[in-house]
Amino acid sequence: TSITSAKIQVNGVHLHYQQTGEGSHAVLLLPGMLGSGQTDFGPQLKSMNKQLFTIVAWDPRGYGQSIPPSRDFPPDFFERDAKDAVDLMQALKFKKFSLLGWSDGGITALIAAAKYPTLIHKLVVWGANASVTQEDVRIYNGIRDVSKWSEKVKKPLEEMYGHKYFAKTCEAWVDGISRFAERSDGNICQQLLPDIKCPTFIIHGEKDPLVPRVHAEYIHKHIKGSR
């Protein structure tokens, strides 16, 4: 089946999304920092089972084709993304849906599953963290300058954003996420994890260069029954 690409107004912004499949199980794919549905989930949009699933991949506000507005990082940007994501799916008339979140999209998915438990069917997160340590801040500062990124990772984002927006937004992200380290326990959403009641599957790469494994273990420990 084909992939449709469209925009819909949600919370005062025009959010871009792609949709494919006609299955009864609706799934929202949530991209990571600077990512879009297409850059982060091209293979899933193409290859996930379209008889079982209806798949939606979104571009959070300020990312991908959901510009304008420009992306900013107020203290509640993850909560804002979580509300946008849930409201997008409701605007598309999905009563209940699952979340697959990668990296920042994983954090957004954790918050959405905790805050909107009646709407979320199942949850899969990978490369996610519920807090920010001083060590994490050191790692983030290592990617602040996008000119040092590998060509493979940098190229699709430069093509999507142009160099200036890409570079500026990456710096703003590093500043925005580093602010959590100033809170007690570096908390992003630790207190919400026990509120997640849906079946949850946590995936983590042993060699993840940005998110140490201890984060995945913390999330697993604090979401009851997660795997």
From TrEMBL:
Q: Which organism is it from?
A: Podilymbus podiceps (Pied-billed grebe)
Q: Where is the AB hydrolase-1 domain?
A: 26-139
Q: What is one Pfam family matched by this protein? A: Abhydrolase_1
Keyword annotations of the record: Hydrolase
**Which GO molecular-function terms appear in the entry?**
serine hydrolase activity
Check the record and name the InterPro entries matching this protein: AB_hydrolase_1, AB_hydrolase_fold
The lineage's top-level taxon is: Eukaryota
Instruction: Check the record and name the SUPFAM superfamilies matching this protein.
Output: alpha/beta-Hydrolases (SSF53474)
The protein in question is named: BPHL hydrolase
